Amino acid sequence: MTDAPSEQTRLTPGDTAPDFSLPADDGSTVALRDLLADSQRVIVYFYPAAMTPGCTKQACDFTDSLDSLAASGYTVVGISPDKPEKLAKFRERDSLTIPLLSDPDKAVLAAYGAFGTKKLYGKEVQGVIRSTFVIAPDGTVELAQYNVKATGHVAKLRKDLGLA
Predict the structure, then answer these.
(1) What's the CATH number where 97 sits?
(2) Could you give the residue numbers annotated as active site?
(3) Can you give the residue ranges of the Thioredoxin domain (predicted)?
(4) pTM attached to this predicted model
């Protein structure tokens, strides 16, 4: 057995989205299968840390677009390794209306290929890879975007989905 890092798995359109059941900022548990049962499509986005400038901008952009996304048949959830208590503070501080889910052991992040080696200020580090996925009602990945930018991402996503 070697200690060399393995190439992280990346999802592509047509792959089955890994199911998850995670604690939310409001104390509930949110499962992908339940979201798919209630919605036409689910946008799952992964972000590094609550209450940081880029993650705040992205979460506020999703919150600002939530009504129009919902009207187009999309549910949005954000997932980070933060504890539910920090996510609750994030939601309250920034008046966020999207569910924020906690994945402290990073198992769901890893399953989606959203945790692994990335470049940060020119150095390779292990961390959350800002990523967004659109999951179809049948549980397959329709869109997989890795290394997205926090600023302007929601506008680009809306354009990619034909909603802009």
Answers:
(1) 3.40.30.10
(2) 55
(3) 11-164
(4) 0.91
